[in-house]
């Protein structure tokens, strides 16, 4: 039996019945990866020996006792490689420590297993920017799995992982979850520590789960959330019992439908699936109300100024001196910096560093970066106003189902615009979930569609409650 076919709850049950041991589970997952991941490319690597060693001392009575969790390749786990799918770190860096999320996973009994593919430094929406190898959608291998946590979503969907962690800066958990037909949660900004994660855009990044069920996501978030003295942006707020929200009814839940998210550009087949899901939620007692997020039009531009500005600063450390790739061609110090970065970074990462450096440069700072910060405040206010009237906001995750590999790669703007429904949540700092709501058929494949639910800051329980109700229905 392949243990990765199971949910976290099912795997724990198999352990408690004595049907399986963590070592069996790891071995079966490694075999499944060897057999099927060649066609998907969801993993960059895995270390069975290391995981089996971890399994020896695992306490099965803990909440995630013996549960293997795949990690997006930007999460540090001691003794594992960590390269953010970039050539600048690939084969040249091994984590000397655990990220806080990994420490918390281990404390709950979980076993970090497997490095999930991603867009290089989490920059992308399709995984085509991986500096190591492409990743494909398990539902149609001619299509993208989404990004940037494409590997994390693909391995859960392909049943080569029980569950995974990813990160979401502008949609990178929710969008691949939607395209691969799994559940993905972007927690409230500050809910989960980023200590030990390779940073992309520090005012936007959040780490969260990708799982087969809503309950598994609640369980995983429960484990990784909470204050962290090593991340000053991490909120000092108690972690509620997220699993208690599972199974609660949604009678009287007020769901806001932003009119700007159901407008032009939304694929009619995706719209139909989302509307069906909303009807289901209504039949369960929820009330839908039209709302407005008037600054939606500016979200993509605002995000691509702020995210690139922060990225240009965060990525300055990869310089061929401190660690990572060092060019062999250089003959002076400047050459070391320039050539190491030129050889190590891929095209999209370079584009973002250039953009980000430009918008921060003297003379342009006020016109771009400062203005973007002001618009960000307006976008945040849109959400504050909306949440005075509703408990959650519902929308599509992505305007289309998973597109074909290569379809948008020559047009970065078209790729950026596809993030329209996910980006505002990061700018506002609110939480969000993508939950499967059916599939549409395109070119002979059934392609999953996700419903996005956005919640108030620290309102994750509302998301789990509503998403679980939909999943069950
Ligand atoms: N697709 C967006 C980007 O390319 C979001 C990425 C992310 O959330 N990490 O920046």
Layout: helices, strands, pairs:
Layout: H1 8-17, H2 22-40, E1 43-45, H3 48-56, E2 68-72, H4 100-107, E3 111-116, H5 150-157, E4 163-168, H6 174-180, E5 183-186, E6 206-211, H7 214-224, E7 254-258, H8 268-283, E8 287-291, H9 299-314, H10 333-344, H11 347-360, H12 366-389, E9 392-396, H13 412-417, H14 423-428, E10 431-442, E11 445-455, H15 460-472
Parallel strand pairs: 2-3, 2-4, 7-8, 7-9
Antiparallel strand pairs: 1-3, 4-6, 5-6, 5-10, 9-11, 10-11
The structure holds glutamine.
What is the H/E order?
HHEHEHEHEHEEHEHEHHHHEHHEEH
Query: Which structural class best describes the helix and strand composition?
Result: alpha/beta
Helix content: 25-40%
Average pLDDT: 97
Q: What is the CATH-assigned architecture? A: Alpha-Beta Complex
> How many β-strand stretches?
11
Work out the radius of gyration: 21 Å
Distance between the termini: 29 Å
CATH class: Alpha Beta
Assign the CATH superfamily: Amidase signature (AS) domain
Morphology call: globular
Account of the protein in words:
- This protein has 473 residues and is of the alpha/beta class.
- The chain has one domain (1-473): Amidase signature (AS) domain (Amidase signature (AS) enzymes), CATH 3.90.1300.10.
- It contains 15 helices and eleven strands.
- An eleven-stranded mixed beta sheet has the order 1-3-2-4-6-5-10-11-9-7-8, with helices on both faces.
- β10 and β11 form a beta hairpin.
- α2 runs antiparallel to α3 (48-56).
- The protein is globular.
- It starts with 7 loop residues before the first helix and ends with a helix.
- The relative contact order is 0.14.
- The structure holds glutamine.
- Glutamine binds at residues 122-125, 148, 168-172, 200, 307, 419.
């Amino acid at each position: 039996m392949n243990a990765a076919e199971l949910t976290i709850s099912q795997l724990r049950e198999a352990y408690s019945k004595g049907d399986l041991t963590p070592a069996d589970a790891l071995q079966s997952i490694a075999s499944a990866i060897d057999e099927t991941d060649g066609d998907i490319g969801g993993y960059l690597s895995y270390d069975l020996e290391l995981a089996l060693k971890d399994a020896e001392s695992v306490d099965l009575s803990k909440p995630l006792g013996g549960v293997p969790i795949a990690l997006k390749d930007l999460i540090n786990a001691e003794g594992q490689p960590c390269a953010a799918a970039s050539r600048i770190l690939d084969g040249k860096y091994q984590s000397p420590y655990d990220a806080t999320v990994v420490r918390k996973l281990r404390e709950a009994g979980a076993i970090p297993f497997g490095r999930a593919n991603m867009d290089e430094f989490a920059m992308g929406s399709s995984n085509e920017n991986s500096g190591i190898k492409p990743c494909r959608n398990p539902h149609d291998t001619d299509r993208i799995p989404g990004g940037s946590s494409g590997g994390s979503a693909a391995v859960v969907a392909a049943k080569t992982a029980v569950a995974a962690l990813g990160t979401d800066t502008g949609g990178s958990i929710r969008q691949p979850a939607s395209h691969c037909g799994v559940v993905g949660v972007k927690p409230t900004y500050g809910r989960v520590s980023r200590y030990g994660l390779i940073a992309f855009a520090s005012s936007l990044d959040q780490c969260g789960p990708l799982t087969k069920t809503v309950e598994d996501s609640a369980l995983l978030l429960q484990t990784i959330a909470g204050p962290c003295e090593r991340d000053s942006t991490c909120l000092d707020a108690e972690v509620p019992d997220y699993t208690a929200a599972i199974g609660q009814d949604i009678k009287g839940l007020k769901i806001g439908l932003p009119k700007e998210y159901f407008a032009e550009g939304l694929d009619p087949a995706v719209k139909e699936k989302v509307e069906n899901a909303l009807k289901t939620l209504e039949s369960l007692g929820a009330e839908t109300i039209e709302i407005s997020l008037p600054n939606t039009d500016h979200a993509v531009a605002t995000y691509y100024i702020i995210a690139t500005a922060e990225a240009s600063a965060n990525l300055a450390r990869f310089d061929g001196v401190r660690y990572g790739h060092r060019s062999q061609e250089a003959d002076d110090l400047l050459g070391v910096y320039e050539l190491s970065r030129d050889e190590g970074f891929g095209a999209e990462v370079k584009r973002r560093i250039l953009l980000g450096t430009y918008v921060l440069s003297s003379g342009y700072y006020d016109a771009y970066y400062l203005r973007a910060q002001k618009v960000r405040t307006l976008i945040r206010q849109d959400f504050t106003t909306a949440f005075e009237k509703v408990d959650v906001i519902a929308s599509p995750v992505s305007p289309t189902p998973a597109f074909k590999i290569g379809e948008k790669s020559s047009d970065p703007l078209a790729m950026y615009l596809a993030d329209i429904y996910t980006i505002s949540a990061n700018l506002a700092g609110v939480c969000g979930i993508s939950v499967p709501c059916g599939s549409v058929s395109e070119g002979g494949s059934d392609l999953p569609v996700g419903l996005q639910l956005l919640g108030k800051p620290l309102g994750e329980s509302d998301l789990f409650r509503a998403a679980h109700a939909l999943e069950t229905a």
